[in-house]
Amino acid sequence: MTDSTPEQVVIIGSGPAAWTAAVYAARANLSPLVFEGEPRGTELPGGQLMLTTEIENFPGFPEPISGPVLMERMKAQALHHGARVISELVARVELGAPPFRVVPNYAPAVLARTVIVATGAAAKWIGLPNELRLAQSGGGVSACAVCDGAMPAYRNRRLAVVGGGDTAMEEALYLTKFASEVVVIHRRDSFRASKVMATRVLSHPKVRVEWNSEVADVLGDDAITGVRLRDTGTGAERDLEVGGLFVAIGHVPNTAFLGGQLETTPGGYVKVVPGRTATSVSGVFAAGDVIDDYYRQAITSAGSGCMAALEAERWLVHHGEAP
After folding, report:
1. Is 144 a known active-site residue?
2. 100 pLDDT exceeds 70?
């Protein structure tokens, strides 16, 4: 790990995509080096699954498994096969030509023949202290209905969704399968979602909308009991009892450290060759939520992490640099 001896593969990130890439790269005798990051606000090493208390849809686990435990097991598997880890965020990268230069926050810079970017995307939160506390503790606040909505704690309860775009519409419709009622909270008097999605929500018998409303506070100690709504016109406040809150106001891909060196989509996600993980820079690959604004599931992230490792290995072989 010196600035003069290039690593075969450097993986940036520590979610399902990163650890799966590390497992595959390690088993290919590439001795991958993983920058797993460090705690920063609601973002923790391990990605968004660190805020998920129970996972029921990851293959191989018939009983629910917590997000942190799943990430711990993935990391342990990667380490078992020979991956190495630095627990720091990457401050910047230099991707002009291989070997690439990866500069962490504190440790010396590292040269890399290939780089896999698997830094994920951070959910946008309202920013209320109790919202973030309950999200971190598994207290009924989530940023992914498909991930968490089917959990027993949410069944036959009134659930709230914050947002007005297509994602919020999809979340609300998904939750109707389990909730007694879904309340969509939107700060304006009309949705910005596509007409077809908005129509589906507005016509669903289990959904009602709180127009011109914003969440002023999240109520509850160990678990959410309700939200305090504020009228965006009058400022009047009132409490609404809910058994779960799903914040669907978007995600931000974690790409700032790239400094614009990789081509991105209009939404800011790293752009890859369709059906692959190759980016606009030869030798640099990307996987997981940093390239995915559609599925955003642990299993799809893991799959793309596998793809990225296989592509990195083949790139090294093609360029005569594999061990």
Report:
1. yes
2. yes
